[in-house]
Request: fold
Amino acid sequence: MILVAGSANLDFVVRASHIPAPGETVLGENFETFAGGKGANQAVACARAGGKVAFLGALGRDLYGDMLLHSLQADGVNTRYLKRVTEPTGAAFITVSPEGENAITVASGANNTLKPEHLPDLKGFKALVMPLETPMPTVLSYYTRAKAAGLKTVLNAAPATRLPEELFPQLDVMVTNQHEIFINAPAHTDFADAAQSILQKGVGMVIITLGSDGCLLVTQEKTVTVPAIPIEAVDTTGAGDTFVGAFLAEWMRGSNVEVAARFAVVASGLACTKVGAQASMPRKDEILEALQGQKP
Reply:
């Protein structure tokens, strides 16, 4: 079983002619709501990609919380560790451009109530993955305990945050995008060099997602490029979360990290072809079909 701990939000999505600049008002084209939040997204992505996954998070005792709970359960995510609290359910307000780019503002709400003492007994879990929409003391506590318990530890370093030095040695894998990587390696401008500086802090492997260019796997011994599949992007919301969830699903099935990364790159590409975060995430058979189509 994979444990995903982190945020769950209801996403309020509006499509517009362009992303508003500061002080600018833009008339949107339409408005929809979707289940989201980086933690819940990664749990759903993992489940749809064939992983056995449980989600640890916090939802308000409100209509939005009910909607998100039912959405997680509908995708086969184990919700026995989910907390219901008095704070309102988290929400994200997303503007999407015709090119599929987005701008996101998050109101964390209930997500900020996830505490170190909420981590369950880790017996039976193989891996822990978290994004950074949870208070940092909770993140550090969970990874320290998971590492000590022998779990594989995977951090999605998003949203971009300067990490405490004591967190790095607790991580087997750090997944970060092409912009976020430099927050924790500010002295570098090259992806591989930035990754090496993070590895020197004690991380086992750094994976840098590069959007339409795929991803880089960086260890102290080598750097491997995994190319993306050609797609026509409609909405990139949730693509990074899809990568993380699909990577965990395939890695925990026993594939090596390069095979798992290839599986994840294809999954995240497919997610960009539909609107919404969880709504766009592909299932295992779709990913395998797309992978088969890339073979010469």
